[in-house]
Predict the 3D structure of the following.
Amino acid sequence: MLISIIGASGVGKDTQAKLLAAQLGLPHLSTGQIIREEAEKQNPVAVRALALANKGLWTPDDDVNQLLEDHLRSECPNGAILTGYPRTENQYSFLKFLAGQFTYPLKAIIHLTLSEQIMQERMDKQAQEALAAGKPRGDTSPEVMAQRVRSYKETIAPILAAAKADNLFIEVSADGGVQEVQTLILKKIKA
């Protein structure tokens, strides 16, 4: 099965996806992580994508679709928990197409929501942790984070509407603690 966890920067997508992946026995694929890893290998598509991400801009649909499909085909015979995807209507359509190509269904698009204040606190912490780990990311400066939030707000509404129309939409508030949010997610995907 495919489950995608989407939300603005700092909502805890990767944290929740890792927990959910462990619960369901599926791999977690983060498009951001895929792009960073593939860029280190000098994959030209990923290098171009990373340059855009470091400016707070979305990767072109065809590029991120290609990277995701390659990883799903090579690493995910039974499905995956995705984060950072879909971010556009075209990516959502491609995700539904991909699910049709595999033997597993697209089960849910989980939208994590968060108050602006907590979101900013988490993004600041994310930037500090990356710097402390000696792996500063170009997409964690205050200016770039603000651009990421703007881009997210500009593109999310059509994806949410499409997921609702397809009965795949689940919304969960991420304002609570990690385990509290995970419990809500599990309860809603099992409903």
The chain has a mean pLDDT of 89. The chain has one domain: 2-29+79-190.
